[in-house]
Amino acid sequence: MNRLYKYSLPAAVGALGIFTLTSPALAQDAAKATMTMDAKYVFNTLLFLIGGFLVMWMAAGFAMLEAGLVRSKNVSMQCTKNISLFAIAGLMFWITGYNLMYEGVDGGFMGSFGPKAIPDPAKDAGDYSASSDWFFQMVFCATTASIVSGTLAERIKIWPFLIFTALLTGFIYPIQGSWEWGTGWLDKMGFSDFAGSTLVHSAGGWAALAGALILGARIGKYGKDGRVHPMPGSSMPLATLGTFILWLGWFGFNGASQLAMGTISDAASVSKIFVNTNMAAAAGVMVAITLTQVLYKKIDITMALNGALAGLVSITAEPLMPSVVQAIFIGGIGGAIVVFVVPLLDKLKIDDVVGAIPVHLVAGIWGTMIVPWSNSDASFGVQAIGVAAIGAFVFFSSSIIWLALKATIGIRPTAEEERLGLDAVEIGIEAYPEFSKGGSPV
Amino acid sequence: MNRLYKYSLPAAVGALGIFTLTSPALAQDAAKATMTMDAKYVFNTLLFLIGGFLVMWMAAGFAMLEAGLVRSKNVSMQCTKNISLFAIAGLMFWITGYNLMYEGVDGGFMGSFGPKAIPDPAKDAGDYSASSDWFFQMVFCATTASIVSGTLAERIKIWPFLIFTALLTGFIYPIQGSWEWGTGWLDKMGFSDFAGSTLVHSAGGWAALAGALILGARIGKYGKDGRVHPMPGSSMPLATLGTFILWLGWFGFNGASQLAMGTISDAASVSKIFVNTNMAAAAGVMVAITLTQVLYKKIDITMALNGALAGLVSITAEPLMPSVVQAIFIGGIGGAIVVFVVPLLDKLKIDDVVGAIPVHLVAGIWGTMIVPWSNSDASFGVQAIGVAAIGAFVFFSSSIIWLALKATIGIRPTAEEERLGLDAVEIGIEAYPEFSKGGSPV
Amino acid sequence: MNRLYKYSLPAAVGALGIFTLTSPALAQDAAKATMTMDAKYVFNTLLFLIGGFLVMWMAAGFAMLEAGLVRSKNVSMQCTKNISLFAIAGLMFWITGYNLMYEGVDGGFMGSFGPKAIPDPAKDAGDYSASSDWFFQMVFCATTASIVSGTLAERIKIWPFLIFTALLTGFIYPIQGSWEWGTGWLDKMGFSDFAGSTLVHSAGGWAALAGALILGARIGKYGKDGRVHPMPGSSMPLATLGTFILWLGWFGFNGASQLAMGTISDAASVSKIFVNTNMAAAAGVMVAITLTQVLYKKIDITMALNGALAGLVSITAEPLMPSVVQAIFIGGIGGAIVVFVVPLLDKLKIDDVVGAIPVHLVAGIWGTMIVPWSNSDASFGVQAIGVAAIGAFVFFSSSIIWLALKATIGIRPTAEEERLGLDAVEIGIEAYPEFSKGGSPV
Amino acid sequence: MKYIIAIIKPHRLDEVRSALSDAGIEGITVTEVKGHGRQKGHSEIYRGAEYQVNFLPKTKIEVAVDSALADKAVSAIKEAACTDKIGDGKIFVLALESATRIRTGETGKDAV
Amino acid sequence: MKYIIAIIKPHRLDEVRSALSDAGIEGITVTEVKGHGRQKGHSEIYRGAEYQVNFLPKTKIEVAVDSALADKAVSAIKEAACTDKIGDGKIFVLALESATRIRTGETGKDAV
Amino acid sequence: MKYIIAIIKPHRLDEVRSALSDAGIEGITVTEVKGHGRQKGHSEIYRGAEYQVNFLPKTKIEVAVDSALADKAVSAIKEAACTDKIGDGKIFVLALESATRIRTGETGKDAV
Ligand SMILES: Nc1ncnc2c1ncn2[C@@H]1O[C@H](COP(=O)(O)OP(=O)(O)O)[C@@H](O)[C@H]1O
Ligand SMILES: Nc1ncnc2c1ncn2[C@@H]1O[C@H](COP(=O)(O)OP(=O)(O)O)[C@@H](O)[C@H]1O
Ligand SMILES: Nc1ncnc2c1ncn2[C@@H]1O[C@H](COP(=O)(O)OP(=O)(O)O)[C@@H](O)[C@H]1O
């Protein structure tokens, strides 16, 4: 489904009818005109704005989740990265992103260059406000960047990370996004990704994976004997808060991806999406806590949190069509993915600090591939092509950028700096500076 | 007031009129048709969705409030319980809850069994989306479960707690809820509980009280000499954050309980509810800080936070009819309840870790009983019957479940485990694991 | 622009037309009638409610930001101040504030005395619900009070602070607010402050500055040798969370200050405001991190957070008219202001704990003065008059209150108490009490 | 004079403090520590990987006393800290050469 | 050699460190501790129940010095830490048998 | 008996604990401390003002051992803690007069 919403003609004609009723026959037509165009415009715009601020809030969710899952000595860094990347995404998605993604793609591989024109409100006509649409699409772009930040935590220098973010949000994300939501070649082919399991979550996951491979694991994470040395995060309540924020924001993420709310069926669709989104998350939690209880005799709270998110990512490719039972199943598998992929990555010595790869990349693929189960317009073959094409493009282009950064300004602090913690090295202040400060004059 | 909103007939007829205006006479009728049915549908649905996500967010509020008010060694546990209970509530309220509460109650004592049908959006007609209604009602159910979690903190094993949660959200809550909001016998009798002082808050409080009595106090809370040993919580800023989240969510809780927003008077009602809700919370804070200053020569921040919540619970039974002065009075008494009932429970050796019993149970009763002051349709007698009936049912059924759990799988960890903290015993990781971890390889 | 929204006459006439279409000529008129009055009413009211709860949420943002930027020993105090001031603002803005600000100002210097009448919903007619308007205006008033709290942290006694808050929210804020938004003399003169760079942010900043000067710096902040002794805050993640909350809330702050959403152009305006608001914040972050990197060779996270807020304050005076490039520039200068004014204040030995003076006062002035750049209705001269008049009034009246409080009940704890921390002295419990508690029986 | 260092279980601190107080000893300094001994910690799971929590939370108390009071102090601590379970801790006694009260400059016996 | 342990008020740490530095002593180890002495804590209220905060935050410093420097170190600490108010703390001196610098293996005087 | 106090870099704790364990020493108490020595901290920027972080995070370990084991313990710690970089820390040995196991009341050699 592309993401440039167009009203269907009949509705528009009907709506028009309301102002021209001159004969009984036309009056019949008018009966279809169940809402004025203005009201529709406002409802659609409002959906973008509400959805937009909910997804914007997810930036805070990622910040808290990551702050909770890194060690104290890197928490200020993680917070700085998260607020900066949201700023960069906003700027870059305006400078090049939006138009690359949505302007004149027309079955092709990218749109046009140049900043998005934000219209004068007096001329911002159509079915919704173009500004509201920009805002809504922008926060999706920012989400992609947030995903990368968590995987690479605790061992990447800030400026190379921010440069990567600028390229990801200004170019990589919008180009692959144009293929589907910009009505590019994948959309023409029939690929289906309702709210971005692949376009947002897997894309972010691929960029993160490329970075993790090139950057390497944190010092000491994998012992010479092959043993994994867990490095527990600093604060489980912050990680929990972050997860709840993300869960909340996801109602905007999936719900507002309906892109319209000005008809009964659109409003009902948004509502059904809320239900399915919640069910998938709930199932993700339940599977994760049950599996960790069975496997490890204890519930792993970080898996429960990741389970919720994986459930959410899984349902994102198609939150509208599944029945509740399907949504529960789709989300539940997401929870299982987390429980099995997290240790698998450790076996492969891929160090993913917050579990973004299982949650966003793997569950994103799962969610995309299962779309045909509930949506008969989608086919497994085309879904696989989309997953592969976007995966290859994002992984490849990200790798080039990471390698270029590594070869030039360098992406990794020295071992001594990493041991000391990035807060002390690159950020003016540690996250909880009181103990280490020592020489307090008072 | 029951909670199955029905549009009044005249409005519907009027609305219909708009499309059939063929004579001046009918045109006059049409003047009443101030909004199209579609717009009304969308507005009502939107109210459920916005209210729903705000109340969903309250789950995070409870999580943070409780994380802040338990000791560090039980914080991961408390976070795990809160995210799991929200997941369980979502599943159970779909499997049995909704239909038990709303399907075919008809003056009786419960509805029907079986999962709630989530309609195809194309057929989700009526005055609002059935899916949005389910979502909105579900988050209320989850709130009830959240209340229990805080009281029993620091000394209950997780799985019995989660099993209780499943039974509470799948059966106990919906059955008593059906009596009033499902148009059951209490509704027929004239009981009035606008947004759930009794149905949600007291119900949760009764379930918590039953648990607290059966579970017993935390080790060391009450000395042999009868002295109370306070066990200060781990983080006042998290508790404050939780309270602000709940305050915010309450605008959805009370405001969207108007159940409609598609007319001037409904929108104005929602607005008045916002005002009264805020006023009651504000008064709760002011009374709590003033009283603790006078009684103890210091402001007790935990009482200030509880005071806000007690103010909110108090106004929940009737947030629409009171004048501002009445709302301030109702909320202010809520604040006073907290200040006096918290130490009273300690005298009775009932160990309520976060103050859920004064806030939700006692202030919930107060709020329900004061409804007739501002709402002349309500009578003290009927209110008392409702409070007593629901109290008896929830307390009794909860007690049976707690006793059954105690007799079978056991509900309490060993004294040694309780001393060590539940995070170490049942959850993979402590909340702030860095200090205790020790053997960090880096 | 005044803040008592009135529909323009033509639209109203047109809207009326829809129900009286009897001739083709009238039908033409009716074509203008693009939305029913009821729908407009609901949309406008909804904008106030959504904007209102988002701005309410900013109270939590200030609480977390300040909790993160004060030292542990004053965190409970800061939380208590923030929840109490929000309660007081709600009460005072009803008792005297609203009417002083909006009732019968008519070109003058203040409105009338007496509590705001909250109408019966059945009579709450007009273009929006009066209750929703009160709620929306109230949360702005509370924001002003929040600003003061941060600057004076760690060295002010709680009750004098709360008394000041009551006078600020009940009198000072509404009186100066009436000059512009209540259609007072400044509005007549052509002063322009869309969402309150001056009326809310600078006003709060002036009150804070007066307090900071009269209260003096924290003990030990400025050494005898003129050296500045930084006192790092307790928790960077909480400060980050607070900033994200504020950023989110600002969409309500600026967006809903459009005051209407019931037409295409209003909805489009709200959308454009979202875009500009986000751009200004993003630019504030980028400038702050770049400048601190260049100046200090490290990114100062607290400057990044303050930079976001300064960007937001800067765009608040005129978030609608600027182009995106202008918004970026306006916000970016805000970020620069923070980086330069924070150390400047230290040179002047003005101790502003959280940076509220640079963020709210200085960036507020900047934002107000730059309005004419994008809004040709505004003139630099009149903007300067507004800034000066409000500055003088708020600074002067605040100073008198602070001095009176100092002379009577005293505003500052003893040096010994300040060293021990205000949590131990005035609040029942420290923020993180576990370590200091010591004699835990368990 | 003697410098007594005792490692105890955190939840016995209150009892130990009162026992010392009953024995006429008011001065005491307390530190949160981690200990490893016969009681060896436990294994935890974090994100699918097991790891050893080698150290358990303990409380260290330090008391400087006049030699005459040392035995009394040791037995007071011993009795108050004992729960008869593994991990109860240990008491170490070192010789203390001199003690000074900062406020008054008093030294020796008067200072402890 | 001597092993000096001092309990001081937290806000005097900076002064004590400079005073030691002026006395030629750079090596110092600092711990956050809680203390109970003549200054006895205060009572707090939590949710309507009063309780005793028996311990106040103090800072412990440890300095190993050559015996020749011990007196100088003690008086440097005493002067820098003194505020003439109750709770100023104490300085304890123990005999130190041996010291080793881990990096170089140096021992004795050279190691402290 | 000896009372060994060592200040080490935090990330060497695990190695030191195993080395001691290999040397037959199980009892050990660990504290998070801050240290200042030749390695002097660094300057930080907070809100435009520079300040000195005078202290670096270190870990203090305390081990009471029978005199016969003291040298072995010291060299085990030395080897395991050494990274050859500044700030590696020091090992101090004090005489221990007596030791008591709280649980059993055992004293002396048996108690350490
Ligand atoms: N030799 C020692 N040196 C220093 N601390 C010790 C020593 N032995 C034990 N401890 C401390 O005492 C605590 C309790 O010791 P443990 O051997 O577990 O119990 P128990 O004494 O009951 O057998 C340990 O956790 C450690 O902190
Ligand atoms: N005998 C002691 N043994 C260990 N620590 C002590 C002893 N006496 C005092 N202290 C420590 O010194 C601190 C200050 O002692 P206190 O008696 O309050 O003050 P002052 O020495 O000024 O009378 C105490 O809080 C405690 O930490
Ligand atoms: N004389 C001393 N007394 C107490 N602690 C010391 C002493 N000298 C060093 N330390 C501790 O050892 C740590 C490392 O010492 P430092 O001089 O920085 O390294 P190195 O021994 O490698 O030269 C210090 O941070 C401090 O905690």
Descriptive report:
The complex is a heterohexamer, with 3 copies of chain A (442 residues) and 3 copies of chain D (112 residues). Chain A has 442 residues and is mainly alpha-helical. Chain A has a single domain (32-435), classed as Ammonium transporter AmtB like domains (Ammonium transporter fold, Orthogonal Bundle). In chain A, 68% of the residues lie in helices and 0% in strands. Chain A has 18 helices and no strands. In chain A, helix 3 (37-69) packs antiparallel against helix 4. With 112 residues, chain D is of the alpha+beta class. In chain D, the strands form 2 sheets. Chain D has a 4-stranded antiparallel beta sheet with strand order 2-5-1-6, covered by helices on one side. A two-stranded antiparallel ribbon of chain D has the order 3-4. In chain D, a hairpin with a 2-residue loop joins strand 3 and strand 4. In chain D, helix 1 packs antiparallel against helix 2 (67-81). The longest helix of chain D has 15 residues, at 67-81. Chain D is elongated. The model of chain D has no long low-confidence stretch (mean pLDDT 92). Chains in contact: A-B, A-C, A-D, A-E, A-F, B-C, B-D, B-E, B-F, C-D, C-E, C-F, D-E, D-F, E-F. The structure holds adenosine-5'-diphosphate (3 copies). One adenosine-5'-diphosphate sits between chains E (7, 35-39, 56, 58, 86-90) and D (27-29, 62-64, 101, 103, 112). One adenosine-5'-diphosphate (ADP) sits between chains F (7, 35-39, 56, 58, 86-90) and E (27-29, 62-64, 101, 103, 112).
Task: Provide a quick synopsis of the model.
The complex is a heterohexamer, with three copies of chain A (442 residues) and three copies of chain D (112 residues). Chain A has 442 residues and is mainly alpha-helical.
Number of strand elements of chain D: 7
Q: What is the radius of gyration of chain D?
A: 17 Å
CATH architecture of chain A: Orthogonal Bundle
- What's the helix-strand series of chain A? HHHHHHHHHHHHHHHHHH
Mean pLDDT of chain D: 92
